[in-house]
């Protein structure tokens, strides 16, 4: 048997469409459609099925994200002091899509979105900006309310919705920069990791390894 020395999904550069979203952030659930659903390239290349439904849209307000996980038999594991390995969604965003950089600059962001872990009973959703390892520069400080998040927990899973506002994204200027660097990782202690590009074992904080998301207009 020939030993595989490198994962097949490491050999490609990925580009996805980020479709426009006509809605806004209100008390109603986000109406991101199946056309907004994101792939998981490692799973597709290795024949694995996705356990999470991840959707992404954009407009001048920022980036809208929706996650749904079903089929769980174990309880959620969400800890505010363990952001990087808690159940939920990790996002990496580079508003300049500088694919040649190996270390993050001020246009690079990382967010941890969790369906639980906030509040005295730790049952509230949580959104936190996470420092990127070995970053050369850091983005502007995150203002209060700049990332909006909500979650709904049910018997065998949860939904998680968020708006990463334009104010939370240093350099978010779709008119001049319609391509952004992007990666996601759904973290689950029961199912493992589901990612857009590279997953566990790779330097996920390296912006050159993120996908390109093209902000599609009408």
CATH topology: Immunoglobulin-like
- Global geometry: globular
Work out the count of structural domains. 1
- Largest sheet geometry: 11 strands, mixed
C-alpha Rg, in Å?
17 Å
CATH class label: Mainly Beta
Span between termini: 50 Å
Instruction: Give the helix tally.
Output: 1
Strand content: 35-45%
Parts with pLDDT < 50 across at least 5 consecutive residues: none
Estimate the mean pLDDT confidence. Answer: 90
Corresponding CATH architecture: Sandwich
Structure class: mainly beta
What is the H/E string?
Answer: EHEEEEEEEEEE
Indicate the percent of residues in helices.
under 10%
Number of strands: 11
How would you describe this structure to a colleague?
This protein has 218 residues and is mostly beta strands. The protein has one domain (38-215): Immunoglobulin-like (Sandwich), CATH 2.60.40.1190. Helix content is 3%, strand content 38%. The chain has one helix and eleven strands. It has one helix spanning 41-46; strands at residues 15-20, 52-59, 62-69, 88-94, 108-118, 124-129, 147-154, 157-165, 179-188, 192-195, 211-215. Strands 1, 2, 3, 4, 5, 6, 7, 8, 9, 10 and 11 form an eleven-stranded mixed β-sheet that branches. Strand 2 (52-59) and strand 3 (62-69) form a beta hairpin. The chain is globular, with a radius of gyration of 17 Å. The relative contact order is 0.24. The model has no long low-confidence stretch (mean pLDDT 90).
């Amino acid at each position: 048997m020939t030993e595989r020395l490198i994962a097949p999904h490491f050999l490609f550069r990925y580009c996805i469409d980020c479709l426009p979203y006509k809605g806004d952030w209100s008390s109603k659930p986000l109406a991101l459609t199946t056309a907004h659903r994101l792939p998981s390239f490692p799973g597709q290349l290795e024949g694995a099925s996705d356990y999470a439904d991840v959707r992404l849209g954009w407009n001048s307000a920022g980036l809208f994200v929706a996650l749904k996980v079903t089929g769980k038999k174990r309880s959620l594991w969400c800890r505010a002091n363990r952001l990087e390995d808690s159940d939920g969604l990790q996002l990496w965003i580079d508003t300049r899509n500088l694919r040649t950089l190996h270390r993050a600059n001020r246009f690079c962001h990382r967010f941890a979105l969790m369906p639980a872990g906030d509040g005295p009973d730790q049952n509230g959703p949580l959104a936190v900006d996470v420092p990127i390892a070995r970053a050369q520069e850091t983005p502007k400080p995150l203002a209060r309310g700049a990332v909006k998040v909500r979650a709904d927990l049910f018997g065998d899973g949860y939904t998680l919705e968020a708006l990463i506002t334009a104010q939370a994204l240093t350099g978010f200027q779709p008119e001049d920069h319609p391509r952004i660097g992007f990666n996601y990782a759904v973290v689950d202690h029961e199912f493992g990791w589901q990612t857009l590009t590279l997953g566990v074992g790779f330097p996920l904080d390296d912006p050159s390894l993120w996908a390109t998301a093209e902000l599609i207009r009408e």
